[in-house]
């Protein structure tokens, strides 16, 4: 098992596990906490030879000087972090805050939608809208009640909260699009919808608001490498134009995004990612089933609850 450096880097002050695959890390980084704004992300390296992975700043506390990341273990690096990142250990490097902060405009009534892991990054936006004086309707979706997290945080900053679960074990049974439709049916004066989650979920959210012509912002998650607009890895098609999510986004107008192109591009790397995970599992001799039988979350499946 590879150790993270204990004497240098950025200290993990809190580790919390929401489920077998989802965990929270609160990291001491006063400068980042001071500069962070809703919608921004960081690029993290676990150790000196680690891959650089982008993660959304799910929360920041300027008084404590910490930022919070909520991570889903889907592949080599996120599983390695799940295994090694404990309270008191350190991340080797964190770069950021990156990306254009979400535009918290003058909207008076906003629906903030998070599906699955997307519930974490939508939180700072919901809070910022509340602080700006907007009426905030939260829609959060999970597969089941056991996977829910941060309900208390959302209840504290939302005027209304609609919980959706696949199995109906909490809130309404169904996808977050059902929650959006419920909000639209009740409120004819919604100015904006903001949705974060897997691409297929954000596509569904954009379709749910298109006929009502409600402005709908989504946060895109293409594969990023440098995060500075140099490599072109994160290019996305928006309104027929090529954009770089790392510097032009990650927030874009959901009605303009070509989600099919995004999902196609994300799938291109799957064989390489599986090979990297297998190599890492072999190297650390983890006693887990072969990759073919691993039940990893599929970022493209019709989001359960989302
Ligand atoms: C702006 C942005 C914000 C993100 N925020 C979060 C977050 O808050 N929490 C979270 O758990 N995940 C987040 N992600 C996704 C996260 O970066 C990937 O899950 C992670 O890189 C996977 O690495 P891996 O080695 O564990 O898995 P891999 O097996 O390498 O990849 C698994 C899947 O993750 C995606 N992915 C892989 N490499 C990258 C990369 N370099 N950049 C982007 N996506 C990649 C692909 O869809 C891939 O199929 C975010 C991605 C972006 C672009
Ligand atoms: S990550 Fe390289 S251009 Fe965006």
Write the layout of secondary structure elements.
Blueprint: E1 10-17, E2 22-28, H1 30-35, E3 41-45, E4 52-56, E5 59-61, E6 66-72, H2 76-84, E7 90-91, E8 93-98, E9 109-115, H3 119-131, E10 135-142, H4 151-157, E11 160-165, E12 172-173, H5 176-186, E13 192-196, H6 199-210, E14 215-219, E15 235-238, E16 241-244, H7 245-248, E17 251-253, H8 259-267, H9 270-284
Helix pairs in contact: 5-6
The site of FE2/S2 (inorganic) cluster has 12 residues, from loops.
Protein architecture, described:
It is built from nine helices and 17 strands. With 306 residues, the protein is of the alpha/beta class. Among the domains are: 89 residues, Elongation Factor Tu (Ef-tu), domain 3; 112 residues, 3-Layer(aba) Sandwich (Rossmann fold). It has a seven-stranded mixed beta sheet, sandwiched between helices. The site of FE2/S2 (inorganic) cluster (FES) has 12 residues, from loops. Flavin-adenine dinucleotide binds next to strand 4, strand 6, helix 2 and helix 9.
